[in-house]
Structures are given as structure tokens and as C-alpha cells.
Task: structure prediction
Amino acid sequence: MKEFDYIILGGGLSGLSLAFELNKQGCLKNKTLAILEKRKEYQKDKIWSYWDFNNNKFKSCIEKSWNYFTITHNQQSITLPCEKSPYRSINSQKFYKFIINNLNKNKNIHLIKNTKIVSVKKDVITTTNQSYKTKYIFDSLIAGKKKSSMYQHFYGCEIESAKDIFNSTNVQLMDFDCEQNNGLHFFYILPFSTKRALIETTWYSKKIKAKNKYQEEINKYLLQKKISGKIKNEEFGAIPLYHFPVNNNSANHIKIGTAGNMTRLSTGYTFQAIQTFSENLAKQLKLKDTINLPLIRSIKYKFLDQILLSVIERNHRIMPKIFFHLFKNNTSKTVINFLCDRSNFIEDLKIIISMPKLIFLQNFFIYMYKSIFGIHNK
Result:
């Protein structure tokens, strides 16, 4: 049985980000770390996007940055600036390479690939290869799911055209001019150049579709927008829009990433929360060699997100109009701060005022009733 001071379960975004911070802050000069990852090799599999607030520590991994974004509904579009908090996209392949090259410089760090977790019992981890013992477990593995839960699920493909067909200065954050059956639906476009872009069909609903259904939606959208070109890469995902129980969190077994409730339920954004968490956790270990579990997201955002998701579930057809007016009736700074857990009381108030009162009040009372009496959707 091999022993390490720290073991990270899963070498994805959250696991590698934490390892990077532990190494960067000097926590691994005299400590050993193992990262247990099931994949055999790292390849480009995702694009992570986020609003950047002067914390651009992965400059070499950035695929593209934008200072403007657009919302479209009923053939009307509004374009808003975001120069002070640019919208950035990280290329996962560049990220993996950058982090792994950094970690490889420290002999105390061991990235163990092609290994699957069989069981975790206190400080012992059993894998398909062998067993490991550790003082601290940082766990990014998601166990189980809620049958009635909502997901943000999506399929995207990179299109490369021979012609200049994309506006490379603008992110199409939400294009709601598409079918709204069985859930909230929009298209999302990241234009990396005038000839290349990621086009994604995104849904908020309980039912995850077969891959060919998403492909049909993409093809229809490309035809409608008169976009043609070669498909270079694909990505498919489903982000659970619910929080996981934290009972298994203990002084030495800590959930991280989506499994640690770092995903913003109303948006699916996780990247920045993971970076903040990793930085804070590494600081604690460096200073005290102990961990006081940090609060990932304030109760305020959890509550507001639950109300919004309740509205999406029951009134998804009116959500395109609500989102359009949310961006139209507020400054980009106010909306971005709210979406990124940085809003103050005045900004929260502006967001709430811009929402349709009756629908949100109805869902507020439904949510409170279910919370008080412990009723869950079935």
C-alpha cells in the first residue's frame, strides 16, 4: 500500500486546479500528493468559459477573450460591454498540458492515470490497480443523482468555414430564437475568429437527450443562419443543477468541484469558483496544515437560484423574455456581478425589481412550502 500526504480523486478541472495551487503556494515542498485519474491520456474535451475579474492566471491556455456579448430574442438583439470583466474561454487541452508540465517539475507530485476508484474508506482508497493511504482526500467524484433534478445539458461543435462569417468581437451568449418545447432552450456561440466558432445548443430541463437529437438542432440552426463549414471538434455535457449532500465532508475528506457544490445552479458556471476555492484551501494548508471548510456559495445565491430554477421548470416558455429584459434593463456590470457571486445589495435589488413579480412570488411560496414540509418533486 502506497502512502501520500494528500490524494486527489479525479484529475479533471477541479483536481488539477487544486494540485496547481498546492504546488504554487509551496504546500508540496515537504509533502507528497497523488492524483488518481481514470483516463489514459488527456485530450481536448471541453471549453471552459467565465467572466474574468483581474485573475487571469492561465494566460497561455486562453483560446479567446471578448469585451462584448449579445442576447437575442424575437429577432431583437442587445449587445453589452464587458471590458472590465472580459469573457474568456479556456482550451482544455492547453490547460491540461500547462498544469501537468507544471506539476511534473515537482517530484513529490504523482499523476496516476488509467486507474479507477473502487472504494474509499476513511483514509484508505482502493483502486483497480492498488490501494493508497493518505491524511487528506480531496474528492471530485460525483456519486449518484436525483431522479427529479434539472440539468443544463448541451452539445457543441467547432465549425471552421472557408469564409469570414462570424463576428469575432462578440459572444452570442443566448440566442433564444429556437424551439422552447420541454424546457428552456438557447444557442450559444463562441467566435474564435471570423472563420471558426463553437456553436452549442443548450437546454435547461430534466430530460437529457440522445446525441443525434442535439446534432439535428445544430444542423437546423446552421441552415437557418446560413452557416457552413467543417466540424473540427465536438463536446457534450450535462451539468447537474442541484447541490449534493455534504455529510461526507469531514476534516480529512473534502469534496471539490461540482461534487463540492461549486457550480452556480442558475448558470452552470464553475471555473472561477474552483479557482477561488483552490486558492483558499491551499492558503489554509500552508499556514496551519489544517482545513476549515470554506463556504463555497452564500445562502443568498443558493436561495435566489432555487427560485429561478423553479420558474424555469414551471414557466420555461416565458424565460427567454425574462432573460432578455433582465439584460436590457440592467447594466452589464450589475448582471455580470450577480451571475458571478459578486453583487452587492443594491445590485441584487435591481435584479429582483427587473423580474416579473407575480410569477416569482408564486414560485417563492411554492419553494418555501416544499422546504418547510420537506416535499420534493417526483
In short: The two ends are 44 Å apart (CA to CA). The chain has three domains: 2-66+90-145+244-288, 151-240, 299-373.
